[in-house]
Task: structure prediction
Amino acid sequence: MSSGPLAPYFQTVGDVADRGVPDNTLIKDDLSWRRWERYCITAGTTPWRMDRAAHSGADAAGFDNEPRLFCGFLLWCYDDIHPLSKADPAPKPENAYALVCGVRRVHRRHNVDMVSCKQLSAVLKGLTKAFIMENGAEALLPMRREPLGPELLRRLLAGDPATSDGVKLGSGKIDWFSALSLCLGAMFALGGGTGFRKSEVALPAATTFDDRRLRRSSVFWHIDGTLHSDPSLELLSSMVPYRDFVVTKPPRSKAVQDGTKFGALPIYLSFDPSERANAAHWLQRLEVQFPCHAQERQARPLFFEDAKTFRPMSHGTVDRYLGLLLRSLMPEAEPVKYSFHSSRVGFASAPLAAGCPPATIQAFASWSSSITTRRFPPLLIIDEFDIAASLATAARTFARIKRRQGA
Result:
């Protein structure tokens, strides 16, 4: 198969298979493989474990050797890695085990099912027990992000003197009319109202802008009963609270790589300028201040860092300014408990407090797997009334639309 007219097809099988793997997984697997290569060089063996007889047990000596090689790699990785967080007293055993799993995934993509490794599980349990004896069981608990609920979101978006226009922020000042601040405000409001992931609204490092991020063409406008994909300034200015909506189409995501599961389920956001954290109002402001029409809507990111090049908003920029805004609102030690993911947690926690079934929240937030209420801390019960009022308003509005369409 290495020669002949069909050779190019056989040679690209691995590359095509890698295209179907999430980018973050490929990055993690690449890191695992580089450590594995270093380890195998030290051990005096090849990193590619292609002996199927050893993996299957047909070769008894190889069947014994392969698990020992992986167990040694687990222990070697644990000595080699550093804690993921400054708050962690030591590396967590599961982080070393993740590197082993990465090596196994690489082999699996090359059609090699590696030996079942019960000994590896035993070594991991031993490492975990030693970690607990040294650092306590609490150190193993994952750090859960605090929910960024409606009230904190309002304060974040100029609803507090500490985040109002003109206040010092880092090396500059807050200007909610600038391209950067307006895009950040619209992004935070949209995150709080939809639960979008950071990778769906902003660009990760070392990646190119594509249809996995929201673009201008991802946003539609439901104005006076008619859906518009490219509204004029006059039409946008005529929007009426509670009657009109912004409609967003979810992009492809890590949950569904081809976008088929959630891409056909648009999200309706009621227009309410009186609500400081209303995503539809923020998006209307963005559309009016930085208009974009025709084919440009397909190419331009929904959120950008400057008005000259329309460079996509980056993860680094989002993290930096969210941290600055939070530090202006709370004690120094508190902001580390929040990230952009907090808006997603807050989005799930608020309807949970209002009695919304987990299956419905799962559909709202585009989770591909089932969720449990234990994943989300409760928000203040006052948020229940905010959501109940919004749902009631939406129900009345849709009822009017249906009556009008029936007439």
